[in-house]
């Protein structure tokens, strides 16, 4: 179960926010092969004063269009899969929401052990996929 947290400016229209979310989910379906109903997203629309970033970092420019994406997922993917995921997310968002790649910040946090997830009912469930 990837858990995704998306933080972006409240200046974005709801349609754009929905495109960002669905773009990430489509990439996770394609690259991490998650089930279609494994769709857990937290979306935070923040006033621009609550989004902090440098105008440029690592020679990449940023603006108020910045989108932060945090993905918590079970450990076990290769570096190649992770690279492919980041590229697919960025390409999907660019084509679906017209947000340039330089504005997309992605952080993947890997969770080791299935016992570190509960999908509800206060229990550890058996997961058949990573």
TrEMBL record:
Q: What is this protein called?
A: 4-oxalocrotonate tautomerase
Which Pfam family is an annotated match for this chain, by its short name?
Tautomerase_2
Q: At the top level of its lineage, which domain of life is listed? A: Bacteria
List residues traversing the bilayer.
none
